[in-house]
Fold these 2 entries.
Entry 1:
Amino acid sequence: MKLSAMIPKQKGDRILIFDEEGIKSFAIQLQKIRIKEGFSQSQIAFESGLSLSQIARIETARINPTLSTIFVLAWTLNVPLPDLFNFQLSPKER
Amino acid sequence: MKLSAMIPKQKGDRILIFDEEGIKSFAIQLQKIRIKEGFSQSQIAFESGLSLSQIARIETARINPTLSTIFVLAWTLNVPLPDLFNFQLSPKER
DNA sequence: ATTAATTATAGCACAAATGCTATAATTAAT
DNA sequence: ATTAATTATAGCATTTGTGCTATAATTAAT
């Protein structure tokens, strides 16, 4: 797996190892759709059952969400699953 | 979040908590595409850098893979990301 | 039927996702 | 400018994803 280390900028930050670009693109896409559908993060949290902190962590690309979380997000946002992946990655990654 | 507990059938099995149906659908879709593209699990493992056991665990729906793993799979299989999500879930879930 | 290849399991170690709770920072309303 | 709402951080506990290695089970070749 092509892993990028997310080196901590501040002392105390965790070291996260995952694909930065994809996670970032997903974060942006999610936020875009959430806003378009007129939801606040809290609303998503409430309706999905996910925690508010988790929503924020995903939108700020701090974590690498799991498939089931992604399912729940699509369901809550009322969008088809593939919509959340409707973005381009750099050729190297795809 | 609509969570289904995967109750251990055999003594010693882990208890996994995630959305069974989605994970299962994804597993099937992944295998379908892998076969169609003419890959063995080992080839995917080798070319993706993911472990062979991980590929098997995903295809047998034993785990709830992360987004970065899904990215790597799409990239390795040479399919657009949304293709991996081209399946229908039950109305209750979507 | 044997053998080889492929797929599935298993257990361990470690990193990371998630919920929870609280708080800070930012943005929007008034 | 204050206040309210929203979003971002943080730390902790728990569960789980992932790699690794080995082995079993299944399937394909010969």
Entry 2:
Amino acid sequence: MDKGRSIPTLGDVAAAAGVSTATVSRCLNAPHRVVKSTRDRVMNSVRELGYTPNFGARAMAAKRTYTIGAIIPTMENAIFARGLQAFQEELHLRGYTLLVSSSAYRPDVEEEQIRALVARGADGLLLIGYDRDPAIHAYLELREVPALVAWAFSNDDKRPAIGFDNYASMYGLAQEVLRLGHRRIAVISGITKGNDRATQRLKGIQSAVRDSQIDPESLHIIESTYEIESGAAAFGQIMQSARRPTAVMCGNDVLAVGALQRARVMGLRVPEDVSITGFDDIELARIVTPALTTVHVPHREMGRKAAVELVNMVEKKSGGTSTQLQSSQRLRESLGPAPT
Amino acid sequence: MDKGRSIPTLGDVAAAAGVSTATVSRCLNAPHRVVKSTRDRVMNSVRELGYTPNFGARAMAAKRTYTIGAIIPTMENAIFARGLQAFQEELHLRGYTLLVSSSAYRPDVEEEQIRALVARGADGLLLIGYDRDPAIHAYLELREVPALVAWAFSNDDKRPAIGFDNYASMYGLAQEVLRLGHRRIAVISGITKGNDRATQRLKGIQSAVRDSQIDPESLHIIESTYEIESGAAAFGQIMQSARRPTAVMCGNDVLAVGALQRARVMGLRVPEDVSITGFDDIELARIVTPALTTVHVPHREMGRKAAVELVNMVEKKSGGTSTQLQSSQRLRESLGPAPT
DNA sequence: TGCCCTAGCGTAAGCGCTTACATCAGATTC
DNA sequence: GAATCTGATGTAAGCGCTTACGCTAGGGCA
């Protein structure tokens, strides 16, 4: 086709510089193996032609793309944003490009996205949480694509992970709630099916309650999607029940903010009439009034360390080790003593 | 290498099914061109071997990847999240995969990401705003990768775009502020350099002020990065000046929320002592107390329509048309009459 | 001076896929 | 029954790149 305006290839550069394609390739990938005079000539041609390598071809020939993929449940709220930003920054420092995909919390979409990313040559993958079809991990293993689980950590699972103990974190927060005298507690949980983080958090509350000699069956539990509106709706429903709780513990900050909003609409004072807690400590938690009591997660640290570990795995410097991060409580205004 | 556990290829499937690679390829890409009996046999082998196509190879041979790239300035706040989610959903419906990259508001990083995505075979690109090195658009044109500008719209620019008029939207909001009697106005703008949206919004305010016979020079303008903390800091600085404004107009909701926070810390009542406005109408705007007066942008609609248009461009059904969306004011509690 | 090394490049064989073109066995037509 | 057509499948030529291997020339060494 019209030579004039078609995309320049390695061959074009080679021809322009009067060398072989091998030399051009070496200039790009292992400059020290080419003598400076030729290298300069080649680089000039590269610039003049506006050449950029075709990754598809490169990946096929070299089996390396310097691309890392991440599949997160959602971009819509800030839960993953901060950690992901740190993840990307660290990857960038190490010469890797991050490609992100979101699954809308749907396992089938997640699987599709994983395949898409792998098929596009991702060298490694960041996945959120443990819960997914084992076939996927088998698939990744066959293809020798290392994957790192993030936002979760479990001693019982050998897959490499970086995160915190969702169970213990929520257990601790629930203890605090109980310490303040709350006995009638409701929970607005994320959808637990297929989401180990939501599951563990819920279990944490249940255990703490049980350990305080309260019948866990008395917990009013509602599962809800992670949206402010859903949180609000769940809160409304809970507060219509005959036996109103004095504290509502939410699976994350987004749900808690929804609850807070609805409380205001209903004319309920927080925490005088009802206490509300969250999880994640996203920016939102400090901004709302009253500020949210929640569990702080070191998102940026997690993102950064995930990048370091994943790159090591890709470069075979690590077989994949797991790292547990510490979460901590942030006791703010939305949690108070149980009304007498 | 050890045949047993290596990645299956088209050839492996062909061998297993006893057909040629061409037939397997056709089964995958144009099923109707293969008779059902063979097709079933092939698909069985595909399943048994756990075959997934290699996109690099496919892209190289077919020059199509069904992948769309988007480069957004940041994932950290929700400005782009909602629109992007809708964008992805619509793309998914049409059989395309979305890959996202973030530039941290840095032009050099953005350029790098654009090249990365193109090199990885993106069929089309979604870019935010007009402002960027013309060389980039030339590069995309040479490579025949269609690009759609989003979150901005200008009659003066012929590049295909979908968005709203940042200038007019902010002009309208400023008029409202002026109508309420505010004469001493401050602006916390985003960084205008390299950001046409921030620039247009600022100009909108300046024009409205001028049209009200106020010296635009009297505007106290601070440029700030789009972070809550920066917004808070800028607000603090503004409120220390000798001639305190009665209204502070912010370049977006994130900055406005920062301002709101600092106002509370400083013991200033909003809007009694000072009015504050935002832009974008992200979720946050409704959640803070007092709720934020802002400009509503139809994010989801924009995302969806962007997907439709971009796919059409990729499939050559459209040369790239521009669409202007309407923004609208959301007058909430944070804006009140100027104190007398 | 003759030999071996080595640095610097070129040659060419793939990587896994798509697709134009060739082939071939019916089915259709007169 | 021969000629023609048609639909299903195979053959093989790339797509743009990397890299094992081979070649050459100059330098070092005995």
